[in-house]
Amino acid sequence: MTFAVKESGHLLLVGPPDSTLGVAAEMARSSEAALAVCDARGDALERLWSLRSDLVMVDVPVDVPEVLARLRGEHRLLPPRMIDGLVGRTVADVERELILQTLVHCRGNRTSASNILGISVRTMRNKLRTFIEDGIPVLPAL
Prior knowledge:
With 142 residues, the protein is mainly alpha-helical. It is built from 7 helices and 2 strands; from the N terminus they run ββααααααα.
């Protein structure tokens, strides 16, 4: 399925008729009969481009069920392979690894790492001090 966003805030879906129409109706929260549908042959696309010369078509592979779940506000579970790495570990271990890896990602910048993690800089510093006291190496501050 191909998505192209127009400046007017509309989304052009191009794909197999049955599935594309169903996805479009769900995204628009409307009936299939209320949607404007045209054949995706070359002449139909040429007509579209004749109306707007600044349009491009971008072929982006997407996980349609995932997109629809996000639009519905549903939270999909992490794939099992991601969860497997967490099973058998304590929350403290997972938290420590997440903090330290985020700190490396931010090149030691405590403020940036705190923002990414959604914690205060003070909380970040307190946790890092605890790690150091426990003998865990911590990236120096900038």
